[in-house]
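Input structure tokens:
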């Protein structure tokens, strides 16, 4: 049961959210640029030049977002001293069902029935929003340990003739465990910057399939149940918002861009990542990512990139890390933390 066992007072130290572990997974099917549908008329050189992507993973028949979420959750809990958590959060844009939320079912499959569980929806910014939600629960004293899982299966949303989105997106899941810690402890999450602009809600969207579709019969067709993105406008918004948000969260933490050891941004497009790094004056060697191997995995992209960086020993304890993301809504967000001893 989710509750605050120890009411906070002005004299009691506020719990500090600390990152304990990270893990990720992708489905086994690898789709290279040469494997993309022939009628898209692409080539490996064309896709790499436009996106920086060489391969992506697509879930096969019978594999859902919930399946990937469960695999990532099991992997991250296996890295922890205990499987016990007070709260399970799932962030996704491709839930297994419109109702109910995915988190309660995931908690039950993990043997955590009875704990609080709910979903967070912020498209590709979902992981940062979820991280802020989990951190707030810990800082308020409501939860001591939180499991946050980000998972998306975008291959189920791409229209059969949508080359522009089809070459970009892959499927995957990433998970982290946060716990209550102390100020200055490795893994400490130092701050967030979050924002949105609903005036741009139609720039990244799946128009049909929801309550609006049912409320206005005849307005939406089958094609409206597929993913749509206005690429040029999204590019401009993504670069500007992630840059601004990164600078804001660095300022709140008392850091400058020179203090940052590692940057892990939402793996949207290699050109976006390069532009954000350039605007922040952060050298390429500090920017970590795996977009070339997995593509854009939606909300899962940041934890997947973190898990990959750990596996490749590209990130080390004590390093100052900046996370930043942009997604539909429009939404954006950034976070800063000190990397823990995580494997």
């Amino acid at each position: 049961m989710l509750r605050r066992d120890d009411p906070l007072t002005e004299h009691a130290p506020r719990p500090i959210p600390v990152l304990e572990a990270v893990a990720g997974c992708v489905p086994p099917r690898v789709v290279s640029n040469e494997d993309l549908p022939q009628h898209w008329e692409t080539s490996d050189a064309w896709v790499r030049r436009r996106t920086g992507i060489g391969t992506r993973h697509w879930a096969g028949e019978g594999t859902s977002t919930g399946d990937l979420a469960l695999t990532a959750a099991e992997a991250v809990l296996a890295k922890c001293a205990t499987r016990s958590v007070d709260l399970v959060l799932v962030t996704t844009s491709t839930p297994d069902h419109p109702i109910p939320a995915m988190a309660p079912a995931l908690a039950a499959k993990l043997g955590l029935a009875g704990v609080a569980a709910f979903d967070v929806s912020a498209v590709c910014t979902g992981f940062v929003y979820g991280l802020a939600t989990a951190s707030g629960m810990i800082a308020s004293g409501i939860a001591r340990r939180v499991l946050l899982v980000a998972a998306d299966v975008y291959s189920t949303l791409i229209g059969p003739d949508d080359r522009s989105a089809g070459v970009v997106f892959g499927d995957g899941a990433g998970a982290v465990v946060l716990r209550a810690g102390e100020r200055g402890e490795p893994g400490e999450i130092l701050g967030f910057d979050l924002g949105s602009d609903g005036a741009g809600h139609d720039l990244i969207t799946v128009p049909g399939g929801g309550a609006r579709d049912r409320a206005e019969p005849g307005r939406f067709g089958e094609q409206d149940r597929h993913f749509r993105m206005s690429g040029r406008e999204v590019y401009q918004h993504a670069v500007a918002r992630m840059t601004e948000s990164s600078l804001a969260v660095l300022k709140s933490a008392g850091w400058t861009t020179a203090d940052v050891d590692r940057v892990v941004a939402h793996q949207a497009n290699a050109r976006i990542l390069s532009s954000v790094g350039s605007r922040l004056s952060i050298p390429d060697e500090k920017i970590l990512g795996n977009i070339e191997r997995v593509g854009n995995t939606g909300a899962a992209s940041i934890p997947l990139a973190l898990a990959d960086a750990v596996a490749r020993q590209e990130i080390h304890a004590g390093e100052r890390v900046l996370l930043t993301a942009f997604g539909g809504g429009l939404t954006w967000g950034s976070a800063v933390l000190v990397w823990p001893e995580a494997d």
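The chain has a mean pLDDT of 93. The two ends are 30 Å apart (CA to CA).
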